[in-house]
Amino acid sequence: MATRNTWIAAAAVAGILLAVVTGIVINSRRSQGLVDTGETRASVQFSLSRLLPKAVESARDPGLISAAGRLTKEPYVVSVWVVDRSGEIVFRAGGPGRQGDKIQDLAREDMAPALEALGPEVLTESQKIRLLAVGAMRREGEHNDVFRHLVRALPDSAGNIAALVALAYDVNPWQPGAGYIAGLLTGLAGFLVYWLALPLWVYLDARARAEAAALWGIFVLFTNLVGLLAYLIVISRAGRPCAAATPGISRPGAGD
């Protein structure tokens, strides 16, 4: 039993080390994919200049809505909004919120106090609505490390802002390859071995001690290292050293 427990403990250590090492490598490669090289921004800016009309009379202009739909199919573009001069989203493909929402309501919580602090004389209304559009698109905060945002204002025939086109795009053209996926699966496999080895070790050790083996095994399965520490504390207070602590020495009457 001691020999078997030793192998299980070794598997747990190997599994967690494998998970940690692959995690460090994967995180390093992912960090490289978050570097803004400017490549994707240049591509998106070219798409905007090629597809958007020079001027529109309103945000609901059919040509503008059609152009916004084509933008969603351009490289690196993740989401597109068309916003009218009042701040209403009249077209939405991806991103937070829904069509018909106001960007004033969707903007991040720190945006409104910042605009109030600036005062009405610092920014024009068109500048404020552009800032609000960016704040609204950045509401989905967990993706802000992989996305960047652009806002384009479209004038009407009188030169006033008639619509805003706001979009989110990938910060970097890097995409996970086969090596990245293989590393991720390897790390997950190592972590799974570690996670399952601990309750198995506790179950076998507790069974050899005539303890509540199934109960301890289930407890450690759900609590992992915390449960293992609790088990070791309980058996140490009982004055019985761990069976695997002396490999090669079996308990009387216990088979391998």
Question: What does it look like?
Answer:
With 256 residues, the protein is an alpha+beta fold. It folds into two domains: 95 residues, no CATH class; 134 residues, Beta-Lactamase. Helices cover 52% and strands 12% of the residues. The chain has a four-stranded antiparallel sheet, sandwiched between helices. Strand 1 and strand 2 form a beta hairpin. The longest helix is centred in the N-terminal third of the chain and has 31 residues. The C terminus is likely disordered.
Give the topology.
Blueprint: H1 2-32, H2 39-51, H3 62-71, E1 77-84, E2 89-93, H4 103-106, H5 111-118, H6 125-137, E3 147-155, E4 161-170, H7 178-208, H8 213-223, H9 225-237
Antiparallel strand pairs: 1-2, 1-4, 3-4
The amount of helix comes to 40-55%
Give the overall form: elongated
Major sheet: size, sense and barrel closure? Answer: 4 strands, antiparallel
Number of domains: 2
Distance between the termini: 4 Å
Given as residue ranges, the uncertain stretches (5+ residues, pLDDT < 50) are: 243-256
Protein traits:
disordered C terminus; 9 helices; four-stranded antiparallel β-sheet; Beta-Lactamase; alpha+beta; elongated; 52% helix; 2 domains; 256 residues
Briefly summarize what is shown.
It is built from nine helices and four strands.
